[in-house]
Protein: Putative O-methyltransferase YrrM
Organism: Propioniferax innocua
Amino acid sequence: MTNQNTEQFISGFAVEPDAARQARERAEQGDIPALAPAAASTLTVLARAVGAKAVVEVGTGTGVSGLALLAGMDPEGVLTSVDIEHEHQALARTAFTKFGVPGRRFRLIAGAALEVLPKLTDEAYDIVFIDGDKLEYGECVEEALRLLRPGGVLVLNDALWQGKVADDTNEEDETIVIREALYALQEREDLATTLLPVGDGLLVAVR
Ligand SMILES: C[S@@+](CC[C@H](N)C(=O)[O-])C[C@H]1O[C@@H](n2cnc3c(N)ncnc32)[C@H](O)[C@@H]1O
């Protein structure tokens, strides 16, 4: 595991645009979790690396991760972002607009992930980013693998879950669900999978 100096250095290394900083401040004010800066910059890099034109996000929040994805995506790419809380999406819409993202580049769907994801098209997406309810990670991963095109990238946030996933003695429900999702992905021979210790952990798998 990285030491504290290294963690601070990695976190400070990620440069955020003003709109992302403001979205993060909104998240703090509303007590809504937001993606850590280093994890956000990882999303931007991944989106740029695959030239992402179509991305699905579960857990819009105030738009921190959405801004990071949009910053790396193809200039005509479309982000589809799902959140059960309409108010969170209103904050994200403001953040995207402030960042100068035209409305045609994002589709905000207010609803429960497990009701919305099954309605999206098979193999149509370059990236699926999951950052919603931890207890639904298993089902969301299954849906994500259906949605991704071959070569598409799955990213699971909070994969280390405050150190609890690595702690064998921790048997909280969220921890168990995340841990099982990680091992299920690791075991699949059709995926290339890695676990990155940025933010609270990103599981990245290429289909
Ligand atoms: C960790 S926050 C997302 C933060 C966001 N990705 C960001 O970086 O700004 C989790 C979000 O998931 C949403 N959420 C919780 N349960 C959900 C569900 N069952 N379906 C869809 N969204 C859900 C919450 O309303 C919250 O906005």
User: Anything to note?
Assistant: The chain has eight helices and seven strands. The chain has a mean pLDDT of 96.
